[in-house]
Write a structure and sequence with these properties.
Layout: E1 13-24, H1 25-31, H2 35-39, E2 48-49, H3 52-66, E3 70-82, E4 85-92, E5 95-105, E6 119-131, H4 140-147, E7 150-165, E8 173-190, E9 195-200, E10 205-209, E11 213-232, E12 235-252, E13 258-274, H5 276-285
Parallel strand pairs: 2-9
Antiparallel strand pairs: 1-3, 1-13, 3-4, 4-5, 5-6, 6-7, 7-8, 8-11, 9-10, 11-12, 12-13
Helix pairs in contact: 1-3
Amino acid sequence: MPLSGRVTPAGSIKVGFNYNTSVSTQSVKSAYKGVYKAVNEQIKNDTIIVNNTINDANVAMLAFSLDPVQTGMDFYLRYGLVKHFDLGYKYSGGTHVFDGMWQFLGAVKNDDDVRSHRWFGSVGLQYSSQKKELPSIFGLNKLQQYFGFEFGRKDFMIPIIFSKSFGIDEKNGSLSFGLIYNHTFVKYGWGNNQFYTLVKSNSSSSTNYIEPVNTKMNFPSFGTFINVKLGYKFLYFVSSLNVHYQKYGRYHLLGSGQVNLEGFTFVPTVGIQIQPSAFKDWKRKNQ
């Protein structure tokens, strides 16, 4: 997501690198159940009887797929396509993200009144798509393999960003804040022909085969953020905090079980932003 309400001037480029941490309350809650250790003995069998422990494993895989606890680097690139509009690309943890931002508040480069403007505002649309491979944390990658778990998602995000310039035309950085609306479309499933439920009668018991689960979901989420960008013309240090509330909805587990998932996600980020075109202008003026 852009760091400012000020879009990239037409013909200019911004490049950045961020290190971020994502903490999801629902994922942390699911992890505390120690699902891998509890399930480990059962999943060695050719036939798995679905019980509460198996359901806990299902919930943990869903929670980490929907909103994982993770840290990592991301790279982004923004290009000013035309006046008041720029395009962006970000690569983050195997996910490709594309977006466009339109600036509706504040002047842009070459406007006569650019020096008088300190406030900027933009609205945009962002799209991302990914297929989830669960991490090794808590043995989730092994659970994914054993359960034949598959998960894919597509996200459409609409950010509204306002920023206060530090110096003329964000010469020394900016303070930004805003709101985010996101809508997620999920396709998930599991089952590898070895799951059964135990059926008991008065004098005996039997097992019923469980059909693999393949289904779709979609849900909205809402968030807010604050960014601080400090530097000089072409090199900036960035710090930000994003907070999201997500009501993921009701999901089918193996067998007849279902679960409602919801929670907050906190994403603190630090990074740098480079503006090569601004560096060229500064170098030319100082030669």
